[in-house]
Amino acid sequence: MKETLKRLIQEFQENELPQLVQRNISLDLNVPKTITLIGPRRSGKTFLFYQLMKTLIAQGIPKERIMYLNFEDPRLYPFQWKDIDQVIEAYSELFPEQKGDKYVFLDEVQEIDGWEHAVRALSDRPGFRTFLTGSSSKLLSTDIATSLRGRTLSYSIMPFSFSEVLRSNDISVDRRTPYSNKRHVIKKVLEEYMEFGGYPEVVLAQSRDTKVRILREYFNTMIVRDLVERFHIRNILLLKEMTIFLITNMSNLFSISGYHRSVKERHDVSKKTIMTFLSYLEDVHLVFPVKMYSTSLRAQQANPVKVYGVDVGLRTAIGFYTSEEYGKIIENLVFLELMHRKFTRPMMDIFYWRGKNTEVDFVLKEGRDIEELIQVGWSLKDQKTRKRELAGLLEGMEEFGLKEGLLITGDEEGSEKIGNRIINYVPLWKWLITGTSGP
Q1: Residue 138 burial (10 A CB sphere; 0-12, 13-18, 19+)
Q2: Which CATH number fits domain 194-317: 3.30.310.180, 2.160.20.10, 1.10.10.10, 3.40.50.300?
Q3: Each residue's pLDDT tens digit, 318-330
């Protein structure tokens, strides 16, 4: 095994790091803990590893003090946790002259039998900084927390944000961009993003047919490996039906009781099973249930959740993409952008809110304070739609004592004073690239 490890360590040293799309993700590389990247498959965890390596090299760390091992490489089979000492020995024999901290990147670490023992042994060794990735099919955030017991900082990695999609298309953005002709190109890219989402491989594919094929393959793999194999699910038909239902009804309310009533004639299933399936889908980062905001935990639990998908392209892949449902698609995109922004606002919690006869799509809470209310509507030309969206926002602003509210639209921009409150209208494309809450 040691000779194999030497070959792999030296291969990494001799190979150039690949060209990357710079992610909008900044990690604390100085914290004395194991850094763990988790998230849905194909979301770019390995390439973020490479980005971190380039950051270290730019900071003056010699590449010779960086190690990278991918445990899906068949040459490492069967690696046992006790073999971790051989990694250190192999490296030390290759680079005995290197002093200072060593940075060890372990990719797909869940493939190691007894991985948690190996990681603990490595992270406890002075002079070694450890970085991990793991597939959500076998390594969940709960596994990390339980196994590493405070030794790690975990980061959830998502598919590309819209600004990262623009970067992958060599489109730069600055404060003048919203006023330049470049905005027309950005709107065109947004149309494709709304249809095919942000999975890196899909974004970089040129053919529409290829994009759909890749997304369908992702969907099927998530069902089989991330869910069926991971959780030993027997009722595969119900699982697939429920997953398709949630993805095609993204941005909608989901009630366990209501869904149970709709399927109980076709499936001999309990409400508990449906609740369990929903938690599995959340565990593997395929969907994100958002709770209704209330100061009462009982009220939160009693009300339906709103469910968002990890990527809107999956909806297209399973054959449910229509222009009539742009409102739900852009609401899901707003949610995903908020999840990306949690990297710089880790205290932010996301809820929805229901008034007497109205609803607010997003309530952003930090600590004890409600910081912002966001409503989403693709088109406000219909007066009934406009009245409904404004009514929810105004009632929410009254409830939480906010003077301003944000309404994200397809193309409407400006501000409107209603009573003593201000509604800011911002087009989706502009909000995605600037994060502004005002016109």
Answers
A1: middle
A2: 1.10.10.10
A3: 876 555 678 899 9
